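INFO  loader      accepted 1 record
INFO  loader      residues=576
INFO  predictor   begin
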Amino acid sequence: SRVPVRLLPPASWSCPPPPSWLDTCAARARGRSAMAEPHKPAWQALLEAPTDIALRRLVPRLLRCDSVRSCLLLWQMLADFVIIPAFFHVGNDSLFEVPAADVRVAAYALHKEAGGRAAHFATGQAFTRQNLNILLAGMEEEQRAADFLEAGPPSHRGALLVHFASPSAEEAQRAQPFIDLLHCFAKRQGMAFVHDPDPHLRIHWQSWMPVGINNVDRYAIIDPPLSEMPRAPGPWPVVQGNLADITRALSDFRDRRTSAQDFLRHVTRPPVWPRWASALTVSAGPPVRWAKVFAISQALETHEVVVFVDYDVIVRPDCLVAARLLDTLFGRTRTGTKPSIVVRDCPSGVDCLNTGFIAFRATPVARAFLRQWQAKLQWAGVMDGDQGSFAETLLEFVNLEYKTLGLKHAEPGYFGQCLEFLVSDARGLRTWRGYCDCFQVVLNLMIGPFAKRDSVVFRFVNPRDIDVNFIPNAFTPEHGYTLSGMRLLGPKGAADGAEQDARILTPLITHFAGMKNRTFLMRDYLIRRFGIHPAWFQPGRDASDRCAALAHLSPRVHPGCGLGVGKLGTNIEEVW
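INFO  predictor   done
INFO  writer      dumping tokens
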């Protein structure tokens, strides 16, 4: 049934006022108190003598940070170099000339300050007149066209896109059979196939190294600074000039030639810090993961619809043609309209979002979303890099849609409440589950619960009907790196009677993300589950040859390739 929609023009909207603590911090930065404080702030011990000079520089900068990027970068540096040691390394000793207990107390207050200020500025970035007008016009157009919509776009106007920039010839050879399987799927669906191997990054990353105290965070040196990004990719530059000292200082700390205290004293000096702040970021994962944003944007210039998948996915070779994918993704939604962006839905208590499968239609709304997603490339320390940024952008656009529809049931809407969970917490640690819990609460309040979400912009594909992104690492975390543990084979490792065994899952697309031996597991899955001959994987075979060898496995009509659990759907809905 179609949901009645009432569109409101942007002039009638109201953005939530900045929190009172934001005014307090701004007033404090001007040298006066905005309100009477009966007690000293929790971070006061970090600002008083004999506190180390590095903290006396970093903390005030954090308290008056004026952009998402600066707030997150300052918080990430504090988390990596000060807060993690205070919680996990020094016990009750002093740290930076401050008792570690005082640092631990201050960490919780500073985390709230950094997260709150970043959320306020992020809301301003998303809540722009340009985005509002694009969304308003786009939703009006979708509603006008709603009465004429039945199926999705014609297959020949769509493209299946996979991005894989091989780090080595050996890796490319191992991945090629699985890329060819995706090529076969696109061909049988009548879609174009695009394999994009271009790194695409519009940033020259001079250096990328593990530097954090816990040896997890990656500090990346950017040349030129973010404000001067080149429009086209180029060769990796040589570290030289006034950025050489940044790379050298990071290398010295990484190799333990410099202590954290000396490192922070150096980088926070007034003449040095502006240059560091513009040329330094923190990337949670290899920066090349961001290439998918550029690859999708480029593919949308020549195709009406782009379905993006990571290279480490397996499409069921027995269902390559039995179901028309674009009808499932871009047919009518619960609101009676055609979506611009498609993701896999997830219930609370499971992984909330993964960018290993996402689909876009070439609309102004989708392009605005991609711009907003790409802009978060400069946010420091965001969990899972492109994936966490995509999830946050999705919440921002759900909020824009909510305001455009004139709804009031979830006031005041979304204004960055989950952002603090997307970066290191008050102990310096990251947890995707914490962010997912917040993400699910916001979606449930604003557009409805799992499998019943109402959105004009987005379609959330119900995995009970068709699972387009089943991730064993997320949904069967105790799999022990066995296909039986992933419930892709029977308990004895056999595929016989798989359709009759309720425990064996049969998703359309299985995503082997986060597994070091993924290509071995993917190969084993195809051989043991679907009977593909090992010779199919031999190097030197081209895509057409491999597609011909799969033809007998994928008839046009297949009883196991319909919608529903036990066919193309899955029903794992409680993991955490």
